[in-house]
Amino acid sequence: MGESDNENKDYIPLLASGAFPLDAALCFATSVPMEKLKWTSPFSSHRNSLAPQRDQEFSPSHDPRHQGTDSVRGSVDTSSPRRLDPESLIWGTAVALAWLEHSSASHFIDWELAAAKASTWLSLQEIPEGRDLESVKAAANQLFIILRHWDENLQLNMLCYHPSSV
């Protein structure tokens, strides 16, 4: 059995600060593509980044599948958390915590300390765009409900409505 056969597929790198970056490792561990993480984010900067950018040539450095990875080894680079904007660290941490609660409840003892550190980090952050911590956590929890129905051809707009537009 090779080394890759023994790799833990549920590994998400936790930064020393306690944050989980919104990166390829988070997508891999949660099995949620970056596009869906950004589309369901409560932060407009994530949704706006999904708009087509015609002036940008395609290259591996612009490929969202390669963001945050070392192109030589394919490993995730978590040594420079300053490259990530606050919205990405906050959303990545909220998603990681929701994923742990939804997918790994039976292994609570294994991830309890990491989740406590991440939760503490999250509670100390100033949430951008006038959001509050509870709405970000609720959006992360709703992400997993939305994902269950994503491929059932339901209108995502019906699931993710803005109260002021109703």
Automatic annotation (TrEMBL):
Coiled-coil intervals: none
Listed InterPro entries: VWA_domain-containing
Basic and acidic residues bias (residue ranges): 54-68
Start and end residues of each stretch annotated as Disordered: 43-83
Residue spans of biased composition, Polar residues class: 69-79
Protein name in the entry: von Willebrand factor A domain containing protein 5B1
Organism: Dissostichus eleginoides (Patagonian toothfish)
High-level lineage: Eukaryota, Metazoa, Chordata, Craniata, Vertebrata
